[in-house]
Amino acid sequence: MIRLTTTLAPMIRMATLATVPALAAIALPAHAQDAQGKLKVGLMLPYSGTYAALGTAIENGFRLYVDEQGGKLAGREIAFFKIDDESEPAKGTENVNKLIRRDNVDVLVGSVHSGVAMAMARAARESGTLMIVPNAGADAITGPMCAPNVFRSSFSNWQPAYAMGRVAGEQEKKKKAMTITWKYAAGEEAANGFKEGFEKTGGQVIRQLTLPFPNVEFQALLTEIAAAKPDAVFAFFAGGGAVKFVKDYAAAGLNKSIPLYGPGFLTDGTLEAQGESAQGMLTTLHYADSLNTPRDRAFRLAYAKAYKMQPDVYAVQGYDAAQMLAAGLAAVNGDVGRKAELNAAIEKARIDSPRGPFTLSRAHNPVQDFYLRRVEGNENRMIGVASKALADPGRGCKL
Ligand code: BEZ
Q: From ligand 1's centre to the CA of 58, what distance in Å?
């Protein structure tokens, strides 16, 4: 675990109090005093392991938006507190409590892994700390676990997978599919979302294969796919695991006879490493490399200038998490103590995202378009809209 802090807030606050009359300091409510200091943002992300690049892209995106606002949101400078969560759910509660109790952060931003994010959401709900999820798609976070102070700037695991299931049946005319994923919430929910969409078109999922996260020994399962000969395979993997899976699938020669589909995580931020093995693959996601809108062009230019690399979906989600926070803070003049107004403002915000504008569902999940993308060279090229303004059903959310 690493903990980095750039805050000088306590020292600044002490210095401020020392120079004002004692009575005035006492008269200020605690949150108004905080409003004069830095806003404490707790970034709980993976900076090691198979999702390390995703965590870095999210932080880059978040920082880019803050920098574009002159380094301040609603007039407040930001102090970042960072924890490497290692995509390790078993450490999730202990890690998030360090940010909430020890560092006293104003807002939690995290994480990538669904299991880690669920531990964070539980702690955020209990403590009332504002939380913005910049990736993890755990359906439960905007389902049964939904909360007034928990928001997502990304997607639910159901969303892109359901969209891909529809495409596989309706456009690609596939009838029999197999799914393959890591065995944890994200993989299982994605596989089920695909099954729901695919079976609505009359298709059938004949087998659902899994292996433990973050295992990348795919050979036995690839042999099982080759023997079963489905019309299509749907896979959920991301980061380093996605690179290895797509390469192994092609090395086994399966890409020649059984098309490989997935939510776009299978090919986002991974194409340079996947090379030839990913060419022509179809995926669905709420972002693509070739949207070619003025908003996205400006974002991509600024990101490339700041970080000397192209952005991916994770960078967009980090950027939009900062935009959501900014929308909430603007409504309360930076005073995070006004929780009900802060939450209400985020809930109502229309986010001008590089992916295209989006609003939030009742359960606080983006209602957004899902693009159909085809891998061409090093790009996930947008070739159509698979599902327009797709809202997660928010099953079990009582807000
Ligand atoms: C998840 O655990 O929810 C997740 C991780 C990486 C990419 C997409 C989803």
A: 13
* Distance (Å) from CA 114 to ligand 1 centroid: 6
Q: Are residues 164 and 204 in the same domain?
A: yes
Residue 350 CA to residue 377 CA, distance in Å, equals 33
Residue 193 counted as domain residue: yes
Q: Whose CA is nearest to atom 2 of ligand 1?
A: 113
Residues 42 and 138 in one domain: yes
| Ligand 1 atom index nearest CA of 314 | 7
What single-letter amino acid sits at 226?
Answer: A
Same domain, 311 and 267: no
For residues 179 and 263, membership in a common domain is answered with: yes
Of 227, 255, 285, at which residue does a domain stop?
A: 285
Same domain, yes or no: 190 and 211: yes
Looking at the structure of the chain, the number of domains it has is 2
Domain at 194, CATH number: 3.40.50.2300
- Pocket lined around ligand 1, Cβ cut-off 6 Å: 112-114, 135-138, 157, 186, 238, 265
Cα–Cα distances in Å, from 277 out to 2, 101, 267, 274?
35, 46, 10, 6
- For strands 72-73 and 359-360, give the pairing: unpaired
b/e burial code for range 273-307 (CB count within 10 A of at least 16 → b): ebeebbeebbbbbbbbbebeeeebeebbebbeeeb
Note whether residue 9 is domain-resident. no
Beta bridge partners of 211: 182
Q: Is the dihedral of CA 336, 98, 143, 182 positive or negative?
A: positive
Return the best residue to mutate from 135, 152, 155 for the ligand 1 pocket (most ligand atoms within 8 A of CB): 135
The answer to whether residues 162 and 281 belong to one domain is yes
> Which of 44, 86, 113, 316 for mutating ligand 1's site (highest number of atoms within 8 Å of CB)?
113
pLDDT tens, per residue, the chain with 399 residues:
344 443 333 333 333 333 333 333 333 344 444 445 999 999 999 999 999 999 999 999 999 999 999 999 999 999 999 999 999 999 999 999 999 999 999 999 999 999 999 999 999 999 999 999 999 999 999 999 999 999 999 999 999 999 999 999 999 999 999 999 999 999 999 999 999 999 999 999 999 999 999 999 999 999 999 999 999 999 999 999 999 999 999 999 999 999 999 999 999 999 999 999 999 999 999 999 989 999 999 999 999 999 999 999 999 999 999 999 999 999 999 999 999 999 999 999 999 999 999 999 999 999 999 999 999 999 999 999 999 999 999 999 998
Query: What's the gap in Å between 112 CA and the centre of ligand 1?
Result: 6
